[in-house]
Amino acid sequence: MRKMFALTLCSAAIAVCSISQTSLAQAAQMPAPATAAPAKPLLSPPAKADVTLPDANITIDYSAPSMRGRTIFGGLVPYGEVWRTGANAATTLNTTGKLTIGDLTVPAGTYTLYSLPTADGWQLVVNKQTGQWGTVYDKAQDLGRVKMSTGSTAVPIETLVLDFEKTIGDATELHIKWAAVDASVQITAVK
Q1: How far, rounded to the nearest angstrom, does the alpha carbon of residue 170 sit from its chain's CA centroid?
Q2: Distance from C-alpha of 49 to C-alpha of 161, rounded to nearest angstrom
Q3: 175 and 183 in contact (C-beta within 8 Å)?
Q4: Which of 159, 135, 154 is nearest to 68 (CA)?
Q5: Are 158 and 184 in contact (CB under 8 A)?
Q6: Residue 173 near residue 149, CB atoms below 8 Å
Q7: What is the pLDDT of residue 40?
């Protein structure tokens, strides 16, 4: 009886060892669990410009492309063609109050901003269509166009920047700066 018990115990031990070795062999053949790869940075990450005036809060949401060795104006952004003023989805302007942008009256609301760069100057296009991809442009939806002042930056700007400068009282300037260009327009909140 003791021999039988010892034999049964040995058989069980051998079976357990065999199962363990099989499991280890199978585990060794399995691929290692995948680890999350670090996310690649976006080529044109989202950016925002905002300003608070006494009679309006203004926010511009855009995607900021970089030069990456490319010729920008007159190259990547052709002269004489409407440009999305950024990358990816259309650049959006939201204002809580009535504005004048240059000589254009802009009621409170949400709009898309496009630009029309030429070798001789720029225009800012305020368009009523919203929510579209940046390359979708419908001229019939234009609220209007205004002339922008253009100048040069002291050094080339690698990544597109839209910002507000010279904010005093109800007035500010919108600047579009990229490569060696600084295009700007006066914005005033209207009561």
Answers
A1: 28
A2: 9
A3: yes
A4: 159
A5: no
A6: no
A7: 74
The CB density around residue 29, as the number of other CB atoms within 10 Å, is 7
Averaged pLDDT, groups of 10, the chain, 191 residues long: 47 45 46 59 90 97 95 94 96 98 98 96 97 93 98 95 97 97 97 88
* Cα 38 to Cα 35, 41, 102, 167, distances in angstroms: 9, 9, 44, 40
pLDDT at position 117: 97
Nearest by Cα to 189 from 50, 92, 53: 53
Q: Are 185 and 102 in contact (CB under 8 A)?
A: yes
Q: Which helix (H) or strand (E) holds 22?
A: helix 2-29
Q: Which tokens is 41 given?
A: 């940075």
CB neighbour list of residue 90: distance below 8 Å, 6 or more residues apart: 84, 112, 113, 114, 129, 130, 131, 132, 133, 134, 136
Residue with tokens 């950024």: 86
Question: At 68, is the secondary structure helix, strand, or coil?
Answer: coil
Angle CA 182–188–191, to nearest 5 = 165
CA-based nearest residue to 44, from 158, 159, 183, 175: 159
Provide the strand spans (E) within 10-141: 46-53, 56-63, 91-95, 99-101, 104-106, 109-118, 121-127
Tokens of 108: 């409170």
